[in-house]
Design a protein that fits this description.
Helix content is about 35%, strand content about 15%. With about 300 residues, the protein is of the alpha/beta class. α1 crosses α11, α2 crosses α3 and α5 crosses α6. The relative contact order is 0.14.
Length: about 300
Amino acid sequence: MTSSFSSEIVVVREGGVRLLCRDSGGRGGAGADVLLLHGLAGHAGEWDATARLLRDSGHRVVAFDQRGHGGSERHPGDVSRAAYVADVVAVVEELGLDRPVLVGQSLGGSTALLTAAAHPQLPRALVLVEAGPGGADSGLQEQIGGWLRGWPAPFPSREAAAAYLGGGKEPVGEGWARGLEERADGLWPRFDPEVMVRSLDENATRAFWDEWAAVTCPTLAVLGQGEHGGIIGGEEYAEMVRVLPSLHGVSLPGTGHDLHLERPRVLHRLIVDFLEDPSREPPLSSSCLGAHSSS
């Protein structure tokens, strides 16, 4: 698979925390700059298909391995929500992104939301993929930590890893498997499960409705469906609309939490159409949750 990104850049943060960034180039293109943020235990390469489509649509696209993940600092001392947000601001400034569209999946969506709330002049628009401001149940960390610690690593091959990690969905398994690192004895995760668990401290103990109310840029929520693993329920989405009536929301039939891996072409189309006209309903065979205008 050809890389969507033309260069790699390391941004160094306080305490020597290194962030590995991937830049598609495309400076001076007609489209807006886009910054892609992966989820917990993920990696920037999850966005390859979406990044390639956005790049070919004229956008400069940047993705980076967030602290604790992938090729970035594996054991940062600070994994607070504020630290993740500060990393986004630093990458935007260091790479000279011009009011980028923040696109985040899962924990990356939480980071994008909090960045938009704390720095309202920074994003041109916000796209949340399977993410919202609601709090998680108290058992979230135990559940996710147990799953991550239970991976049968090292995996003998990428095919074996994809079969295990995909839950029966080939694109999902392949996306997760691409994030593994090859060692002499097989393929290993590029994260420490304990760091991942600590990264969820705030999400597991509070909600972010005040921050959600502070978002001022155009916002699109792209959601999977609960029976397929989507995590945003109807009550949470209804409250998201009540607090932010301008929210534009779409649920993609048959997709779950990793819909960016399952349906990258559809996600690309939704993002591009949204940026062209945030008030327009999606011209796709997707379920429109609501296209509301704050007149």
